[in-house]
Amino acid sequence: MRWSRVRGGFASPPRRLARRQRPGNRCSVAMMGEDTHTIHSFKGAAVIARSVGIVAIALGFVGGMYGLDHPESAWLRTSLGLIVTGLLAQGYALICTARRFWQDEPPDRS
After folding, report:
1. If we measure between CA atoms, which residue out of 48, 46, 27, 22 comes closest to residue 37?
2. How far is CA 22 from the centre of its chain?
3. Are strands 9-10 and 5-6 parallel, antiparallel or unpaired?
């Protein structure tokens, strides 16, 4: 969590974090810096993992086509690694999405 530096110490947390505080919410602003996961962090992780997965799979297929034209190069193995990496990233995004829906609290619609 990023705190803005002021003279003599740290400033208060940003307002957008304070607005998400609701009575009964298990995650407080003080807990945001710890290793606790919130619905928002699962959503962000899923979006990043999906993006990385799509790009890695696309690059893997493009590199694989080049590797089939030049079988003596290392492009086939590199492309296979990119495709596997993309599939693993998509699997992680699926897990993050499932964990987000398994949370007790409803997802934030804003």
Report:
1. 27
2. 24
3. antiparallel
Task: Give the span between the Cα atoms of 91 and 77, in whole angstroms.
Answer: 21
* CB neighbour list of residue 43: distance below 8 Å, 6 or more residues apart: 96, 100, 107
Name the nearest CA neighbour of 67 among 57, 55, 75, 59. Answer: 75
CB neighbours (10 Å) of residue 93?
21
Mean pLDDT of all residues in 19-42:
53
Rounded to 10 deg, the angle between the 75-102 and 39-69 helix axes is 160
| Listed range (43-47, 50-54, 79-83) with the worst mean pLDDT | 43-47
| All residues at 6 or more sequence positions from 100 whose CB lies less than 8 Å from its CB, including other chains | 39, 42, 43, 46, 107
Residue ranges in the chain assigned as alpha helix (H): 15-19, 39-69, 75-102
What confidence score (pLDDT) does residue 78 get?
Answer: 95
What is the model's pTM?
0.58
